[in-house]
Amino acid sequence: MSESKTNNFTVTDFEHAKIRVEQGWLQGYTEEVPNGTLKIFKGIPYAAPPVGNLRFRRPQNPGRWRGIRRATQYSAAAVQHVQEFGDKKANVHGVPQMLAPSQYEEDCLYLNVWSPAKTQEDKLPVFIWVHGGGMIAGSGVAVVCAGEGLGGRKDVIVVTLNYRLGLFGFFAHPELAEEGGGTCGNYGLYDIRKACLWVKENIAAFGGDPNNITVAGQSGGARATGSLLVSPLMNGIVQHISVESGAITFGGACPITRQEVEAACQELMDYVGASGIEDLRKMDAWDLFDAYEKVVPTGALGNIRFCIDGEFLPENYYERITAGKINDFDVMIGSCAQEWLVRRGKGLPLEEYHKHLRTAFPDAYEQMRQWYPATNEIEAEKACSTIASDMMAISSLYVAKMCHRKGKKAYVWIMNKENETKKGHDLGCPHCAEMPYVFGRVDSGERDPFFHYHWVGADYDFMELIQDYWYHFAKNGDPNSEGRPVWKNYTEDFDVCILGNDTHMLPKEEQARYRYLFDRISAKGSDTRMVGSVVGLPAID
Question: Which helix (H) or strand (E) covers residue 411, if one does?
């Protein structure tokens, strides 16, 4: 882009992170990174502020602006519960944030872009990240998902975004259904779709390929990303999805009915004395949120959450996946070896462990003892966590199986990489442990900002491996590249890539336990509740 004059100001070239999108000109900034110069743009509105009359409505187009909009600071994140630990801020799940407590607002529909493109004609693959937090917490500006650690090492454009959470993202009511032509709810999912559309329409200006977009998400973001796989409204918008650390076909992790959400929302309306939706739209956002926290269970599986709305989600995940009603996406899906932390290092008495095994697996007790051995209380706790986590992994296997039957590619992973110094997580590879490696969060210092342990040589090597896999999946819909362990596309043979210091495909002799668990869960049907209850274990504390 050559230098030119418009509206009495100078427009410089792409090299200096000044570009034009549909709404107007953006001024970002540049940063020197291992693979060259990274162009960074923060706080870009992808939709109109969802406030006032737009509260509890689908996202609307963002407005245009005059002049050059500075895109150098993060925007506010969605309204949520924020905790303070001294001078550190974290969401309700303890994930560190880059924002002050005052920077959580209803006006939150913004995204951030990290582009290593050298020219606007590069057509780099695009990696959109949907943050986790149970759909009640988190943001696209969390420490753990800043884009410079991935976009600064690989030729991929990284996009992170905020979407409406909890009450504001998933409120449903018959009055809203009348406004919405018979459907309502899932506004947070519509936000994600809107962000994907914005990226498709504008990413070429950042040097990206609008026809090569991957959407990835972890935990609650995995549930959201999983919804994209089965939503008829997402066909043709993106090409690949990565579902990370989130079971999407278990009953407890699946959307509930709209009627269930509406009942909970009516209870909230009664509590605040609202006669209708317009009363709620006039209330201060934080006053309404405070009432929400008092009246409605707000856990990750609470009753104001994503639902079967009849349009974005016409049916349950499980039903649509089983029926083969899935979009034409390449899929990468997986979880960590100890997703389900039981007592967080307190240990589990051996006699209690064996009691769990006998109760939960009376038909295979001796076999389970061999598959999941334990000689002390810490090993027993880790074994319980591994059992529950392996059962969660069955969700990934089921999705991959259905994709394969439809002739679509699916790559399944289980990560068992433990930090080499084992500081903070002696129990193994916990929930979302892949994130620091995917995002290369080693540049901020010796200690990892998410799990608080030291990195050594093998951790850096593993980061290079993971980033290669994720980058090539974003680029080609296939994680494989020359010089890396082969990752087989899923067939009917429990093809799972075990990601660790010795990355390999799951050996035939180790497939038996997954086959047993797969058959067990299949026999119980799609309404299998939280995995911990199936195994007879306490829930995550």
Answer: strand 410-415
- First vs last Cα of the chain: how many Å apart? 54
CA dihedral 222, 224, 225, 227 (to 10 degrees): 120
For residue 275, what pLDDT is reported? 96
Rounded to an integer, what distance in angstroms lies between the CA atom of residue 226 and that of residue 339? 18
What's the rounded Cα separation, in Å, for the pair 504 and 508?
12
Sequence-distant (6+) residues with CB within 8 A of 288 are 167, 272, 280
329-347: pLDDT as tens digits = 999 999 999 887 766 678 8
406-419 pLDDT, tens digit each: 999 999 999 998 77
> Rounded to two decimals, what is the model's pTM?
0.93
pLDDT at 527 over 70: no
Return the structure tokens found at 88.
Answer: 């550190």
**Dihedral sign for Cα atoms in the order 345, 346, 351, 353:** negative
Task: Read off the pLDDT of residues 5-43 as tens digits, 9 standing for 90 and up.
Answer: 443 334 457 999 999 999 999 999 999 998 899 999 999
Helix/strand/coil for 168? helix
pLDDT the model gives residue 85 = 62
* 219 contacts 248 by C-beta, under 8 angstroms: no
H helices present in 69-162, as ranges:
148-151
Contact present, 503 and 423 (Cβ < 8 Å): no
Q: Is residue 208 part of a domain?
A: yes
Going by C-alpha positions, the residue among 99, 232, 261, 260 that lies closest to residue 167 is 261
Residue 139: CB atoms within 10 A of its CB come to 28
Chain segment 472-499, per-residue pLDDT in tens: 999 999 999 999 999 999 998 899 999 9
Distance from the Cα of residue 90 to its chain's centroid: 17
In a domain, 323, yes or no: yes
* 8-state DSSP, 54: G
Beta strand 9-11 with 4-6 is antiparallel
450-462: per-residue pLDDT in tens?
Answer: 555 677 888 889 9
Query: How far is 427 from 429, CA to CA, in rounded Å?
Result: 7
Using left for φ > 0, alpha for ψ between -120 and 50, and beta otherwise, residue 535 falls in alpha
Structural domain count of the chain: 1
Its domain, for residue 192, covers 27-43+110-256+307-535
Identity of the amino acid at 27: Q
We report the CATH number of the domain holding residue 311 as: 3.40.50.1820
Query: Amino acid identity of 93?
Result: H
Alpha-helix residue ranges (DSSP H) falling in 324-413 = 350-360, 365-371, 377-405
Region class of 7: left (phi > 0), else alpha (psi between -120 and 50), else beta: left
Residue 52 lies in a domain: no
